[in-house]
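The instructor's notes for this session suggest beginning with a concrete chain rather than abstract definitions. Hand out the sequence below and ask the class to guess, before any prediction is shown, which regions might be ordered.
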Amino acid sequence: MDEEAATARIARRHAQILGDAPRIEALSIDEYSADLDPLIRQMIAINQSIDAREADLLTDVTEAQAQGQGDMSVVLARLPEIIRTMMRHPALFARQTDVGVTLLTQGKLSARDREMAILRVAWLCQAPYEWGEHVMIARHAGIGRDEVERIVTGSERP
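After discussion, reveal the predicted structure:
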């Protein structure tokens, strides 16, 4: 496959990934309740352990609550849509989080191999949040820009 065709294929895939609106609406700000606080605290711990960008946003939520901030809408609105979507199903989110923590702390793959696998699956599943988050984590695991680009093109390119 020539360079131009590969670039066009990547552009089409990029459009697919960022395409339509979410299938499940994110939790609206007025639907947030204190029942979700344990989940937020769990997410803070996970995000801090992998140096994810959401750690500070999640910490802002708990700090605002601890300070008795009445209007949480500004803080909650900054949470990524995927987190607010998963909050719609806290029990499922908690189980998914447990699996993630287990894989991070007890998984047999090295951090590098784990991130390579996550990135490839995120690309193939058209998951923009997962892709964006794990590109950053992959960089911390020693995966370079060229390797990330090869994940996008897959096995078609040497």
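Then share the key points. The chain has nine helices and no strands. Residues 90-106 form the longest helix (17 residues).
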